[in-house]
Structure formats: structure tokens, C-alpha cells
Amino acid sequence: MSGVAAAHFPKQLDIDIEPESTRNRIDTSGNGRVAVAVHSTQFTDEDGDDVRFDPTERAVRYRFGTTDLLANGGGVRPVEDGAVEDVDGDGADDLVLTFPTDGAGLTGDETSASLYWERDESGKHGYAGSDAVELPDDTSPSDVDVLNYALSLEHLEYAFYRDALASSGGPFSEREVERSEVANYFDRPTLQYSTYQQFEEIRDQEKAHVEALKKTISDLGGTPVREAEYEFGYETVPEFVATAARLEDVGVSAYAGAAPSISSSEVLTSALSIHSVEARHASYFDTLSLRRAAPDPFDTARSMEQVLPLAKQFVASE
């Protein structure tokens, strides 16, 4: 964080979601908009000087949404530059921004939402603010929300393979993979010596999933989530394969859990076509891990609330 940025921004933004509502209630059934007031704040900077942060003085990049969504590079941008008004009656101007609710990740279970100020175009946040919210009981994720959820997982999977294989800048060469313990499980040389190529094909398929989801989200008027920074923690090929099996299993269960929330038949068809490919990936890595490729007649579906903590363990802390 630069000294210039630190001098102008408090460590915690003071925000008020739906400031005209005493209970910060977000009405997702109306015009699909939510107002967020960014308050002027008095704070002490790194030099010990008292400074007032005035959100109306300079243009910065804001993102709004659930904390989990924002941490994974998601969230929505304001639909306009914002209005200047004294919301809290303290005599100082506040900046009131309006955001679309579609794409903010609100499912109806949230008790708070957040606003991030981004340091630059990388999507990483500098300072953040959170506020309590109240949502209708019948709030359900939009198709854009579901697709961005899927995209965050596809970003994770593509980065996992890309960052591992030497052909895309990773540490594992074709020789190392195909002479590894896991490749030697295959008695047939044609299988053993095609292991690396299989990994490359899976990597390229995950990239294709990322590109397809980004295009669909944009076509629907949404903002695709960005790729986060990840830490996978493997050092050997067997450790890489074991992690791949876990990631693919989570991906399969995530698609199964999210599919019923999709309202568009075209979007559902696209999502299911990805789901079946993810299942093939999972079976392949289960085989390499000496596990049964199809141990059960039915797979267990996982909800967003179950999947996000599993995925976040690979997201690097900022």
C-alpha cells in the first residue's frame, strides 16, 4: 500500500447500506438496486496526523456484494457516479452510490454486505467497509450470481493446472509427471506416457470453461468475477494429483447443488454440459489416486454455503 493511498483512506470505510431504511432492508423484488452511502470519516494517518477522508473528493473504484464474493474477486460496480449529500446529518458530504442487486451474491441468508475500494485495476481491495443488512426471506440467487459462483470455481481449477504444468510456466515437466509414482500405476505404456497430455487437456478444458462462463455472464449484463490469487501447497506430483481429485470432487458437487437455482433453460443446459466434463475429470484423478472412480450410484450435491469455505482454503490471504 503506497503512502499516498494510506494518507487518504481510513483503515475501515464507514458505510451505510440503504441509508433511508432504518433496518438496512434491501428490496430485491423492486428495481434491483441498492444504495450505499460512503461517509466522510475523521481518522489518524500513519504519521499520527488527524485527517478527514472525503469520499466526494476523488474518484475510486468500488465493488459491492457479499464478503465471500468480494474476496474472490466478484461484486458489482455502481450504475452511476453517485450523489453527494449529507446522509447522516453531521454537516459533511457523503457519497451515495447505487449498485445493482443482480450479481451481488445476495441469497437471502446474509446479515451483512460489504463495499471494497480497489487499489488499482487488479481487483484487489485496499480498504473495505461492512454494514448489517436485512433481506426478504424469499431472496434467491440470480442466474448471474450462480454463474459467477461457478466461474470462481473454474478460475480456481484452471489456475491449479496452469500453475503446475511446465508447458504453462509451472514446475512439473512431462518427464517428471510420467515417471512419477502415480503414472506408474498404469501397466500400459500408452497410458503411462500420456499422463502429462491428459493433464494438459484438463487444463485447457478448464480454461474453456472460464471463457465460456465469462462470455455468458457478460451477455446477461453481469460482471464476471476476477481470478483470485491462490496457494495450493503441493510439492510432488502425487500431492498435486490428490489435490486435483479434491478440487474436481468439489466442483462436481457444486454444479449439482447450483443447477436447481438456474432459471434459464439455456443457461442450465450450458452449466450441465460443464458438470458432466467435471465429473470425467474427477473420475480420472480418482483413478490416479487409487480410489474407485464411481463409488456410489448418486453424487451428493453441495450448496454454495458448503462449497465456498472449501474453495477459500486455496485463496491466498492478502
From TrEMBL:
Pfam family, one: Ferritin_2
Region (Disordered) residue spans: 1-30
Highest rank taxon of the organism: Archaea
Coiled coil regions in record: none
Family matches, as InterPro entries: Ferritin-like, Ferritin-like_SF, Pigment-catalase-like
PANTHER family the UniProt entry points to: DESICCATION-LIKE PROTEIN, OS05G0151100 PROTEIN
Name recorded for this polypeptide: Ferritin-like domain-containing protein
Biological classification of the source: Archaea, Methanobacteriati, Methanobacteriota, Stenosarchaea group, Halobacteria
